From TrEMBL:
GO terms for molecular function: metal ion binding; phytanoyl-CoA dioxygenase activity. It comes from Capsella rubella. InterPro entries: Phytyl_CoA_dOase-like. SUPFAM superfamilies: Clavaminate synthase-like. Its cofactor is Fe cation. Keywords: Iron, Metal-binding. This is Phytanoyl-CoA dioxygenase.
């Protein structure tokens, strides 16, 4: 059993792992994934876990976000778009790495520059340090259920480098073009895993995730690099056949773990129903070096979920 788990976890990256028993003894954390789940994750590049968050947790996270939105000053914000990344290279975007910042949908404003709908129906996402600065989101993120999950994936000292509350607003929820999480959250060796929790049912109607199963095995295709003149990709985007993508519909409370090299996307939400989600990106801080040209640059790394100091 132990050898089988180690076989799966070693393939997630080139980082050195402790033997499973020693790993758990040091951390005091027991992995929650079964060998069959690990095998699926490493063969397909993703894994859906149903009922990861309880109804009470979902209700609490959504209520707290409503409170944050009510306190939000619309005059201090930015627009988020995956189609035109240059729109997200202002100081507000860069400083959001260590703050709770608000980003509008690209189609939220009319030609006159005024919001076409209330602000709570105009926000694309809130990020990128919710998990550190808001007590409720911190408690949820640093709970044992997350630690057990990433322990199963072989992390020795995991760090959440960014968190996002994603709204996928009805009618204007923006498209997220095909991408890999390692492009944006890069370590050497690569170690990113995305954790995406559906806070509402996520379907093909309201803009669920789509992925190319097994595409993580082809490696990283490009990086999102921060330089003196802002951020840019170091390579053009490859073209993808839509027939290769499969929809990943999820019930509220479900979690999907996403390998850092998995190609995934979501379409615009043209439906009358939103698709709220809470997303985290975890990296290894033991034996993996945070890239100096990542868009996220911090004076100190966040507190790890677990592991030796």
């Amino acid at each position: 059993h132990t050898q089988r788990i180690l076989k799966f976890t070693k393939s997630i990256s080139r980082r050195n792992l402790l033997p499973e028993e020693e790993n758990h003894r040091v951390m005091g954390i027991t992995g929650s994934l079964s060998p069959d789940q690990l095998e699926f994750f490493h063969s397909q590049g993703y894994l859906v876990i149903e009922s990861f968050a309880s109804e009470d947790e979902i209700r609490g996270l959504r209520k707290r976000m409503d409170e944050l939105l009510n306190q939000f000053d619309c005059s201090v914000s930015s627009i988020f778009s995956t189609k035109n990344q240059k729109q997200t290279t202002d100081n507000y975007f860069f400083e959001s790495a260590e703050k709770i910042s608000f980003f509008f949908e690209e189609k939220a404003f009319g030609d006159d520059g005024i919001l076409k709908q209330p602000k709570e129906l105009s926000i694309n996402k809130v990020g990128h340090a919710l998990h550190e600065l808001d007590p409720l989101y911190r408690e949820f993120t640093y709970s044992s259920k997350f630690s057990s999950l990433v322990s199963s994936l072989g992390y020795k000292r995991p760090v959440v480098m960014q968190s996002m509350y994603i709204f996928k607003q009805p009618g204007i929820g923006g498209e997220v073009v095909p991408h890999q999480d390692n492009s944006f959250v890069y370590t050497d060796p690569q170690s990113c895993t995305g954790l995406w929790i559906a806070l509402e049912d996520s379907t093909t109607v309201n803009g669920c995730l789509w992925a190319i199963p097994g595409s993580h095995k082809n490696g990283l295709v490009r990086r999102f690099i921060r330089g003196e003149n802002g951020v840019t990709f170091d390579q053009p985007s490859p073209s993808y056949e839509q027939k290769d993508f499969v929809p990943i519909e999820m019930k509220a409370g479900s979690l999907i773990a996403i390998h850092g090299n998995l190609i995934h996307q979501s379409f615009e939400n043209l439906s009358p129903k939103s698709r709220h989600a809470y997303s985290l990106h975890v990296v290894e801080s033991d034996g993996c070096k945070w890239a100096k040209d990542n868009w996220i640059q911090r004076e100190t790394m966040p507190e790890p979920l677990y592991g030796l100091p």
